[in-house]
Amino acid sequence: MGRTxxxxxxxxxxxxxxxxxxxxxxxxxxxxxxxxxxxxxxxAGLQRCGKSCRLRWFNYLRPDxxxxxxxxxxxQTIIRLHAALGNRWSSIAKHLPMRTDNEIxxxxxxxxxxxxxxxxxxxxxxxxxxxISSSSDSEPTTTGKPKSTDMYMVPSKxxxxxxPNTNQQGSSKLESSQLxxxxxxxxxxxxxxxxxxxxxxxxxxxxNDDVVTKIEFESxxxxxxxxxxxxxxxxxxxxSSTSAQLLNKMATSxxxxxxxxxxxxxxxxxxxxxxxKSEASSAxxxxxxxFEDEPKITTIIDSPSSPTLIxxxxxxxxxxxDNWQCxxxxxxxxxxxxxSGDDSSVSEINxxxxxxxxxxxxxxxxxxxxxxxxxxxxxADKSDEYLNEILTCEDEISKYIQYL
DNA sequence: AACCTCAGCAACCGCCAGTAC
DNA sequence: TGTACTGGCGGTTGCTGAGGT
Length: 404
Known about the structure:
The structure is a single chain. By secondary structure, the chain is mainly alpha-helical. 42% of the residues lie in helices and 5% in strands. It contains 15 helices and five strands. It has a three-stranded antiparallel β-sheet. The chain has a two-stranded antiparallel ribbon with strand order 1-2. The termini are far apart. Its main location: nucleus. InterPro entries: Homeodomain-like_sf, Myb_dom, Myb_TF_plants, SANT/Myb. It is found in: Nucleus. GO terms for molecular function: transcription cis-regulatory region binding.
């Protein structure tokens, strides 16, 4: 038995909606709410298909949509998201408040795609076409999982749906790099540099200079850097996590630690000392409020997860561990790092042995080694899967050894 | 003024996944 | 467990108006 049609299309009106029809629909929804689109047209006195009513409401009539010119910021967001998500317009629309998927889709098809084409930019990776290798090196494997050394070119994570309202945060004026530098002043400890070395290894494998976060070491002391062993995060892309996000994540991370409240107060106070007084008070106040309340942010890792995104998570969390050994001596599952949402992939960072951790997502996997001792099979997870991961990470291992 | 082209946009269509029964 | 229903999504169509010839 086939499916019964949602309505008798022959009796239904098609085409542009009249003002009268709009009014009927709005009046009905204001009274009865949405839902039951199948029966709604009859109840509302409309000769329309239920799907047509739903579409009209969501794309045009509902009050919480913004129409008209898209800002440059919105435009950039669309470009970045499209590079990561493809034609998943509804997912993209979730990151653009008050914009509909249909509007974004139309804008892309009628304008943005052409603009990128004119500029010679590949719309699927936001990188100039001329710089893209003609080989399929960066293509995922047939299993959908890229080679371990491959990095997808993905947008930064500040597009998360949980992005806080930065208007309420004085600290949002800080670039992520600035913020991290400030944080770096407040942490020190044995093993910290090793942690960053490992993270650098991940970052160095990235291939998209424009978008992917990178860290560069500076041997000489920078005016920003107070400790000789601390790295300079100056080259962290401004596209990476916003300061607001970082603050939220820091608070979330700290809340899970003993004496986290005290640590957070001390850290945020110190963090803001060097800033203007008014900004410091507002930022500090917000941070404390944020911290005393339930943490606002878990984490956003948009699909497809990327090393960049995970990298940021590791960096953020590692900053607040007493030292790197603390991280390496305990099994740490960054459950909160891997967001599971309607369109998020689940990523996980697990300590796989005493001297390595594994970053996993559905399309990416690599190992990072915390010291020069490449783990033996016995130290590794016993599963074949994990052993295979080791074998596919030879590049990372050799690079790391060379680095050391 | 008439015609043509094209961008912008609303709307339609078919498909799919989740859910209820 | 299978079927029907429902809402949602993405691809596509077709209308409209502005601008050019």
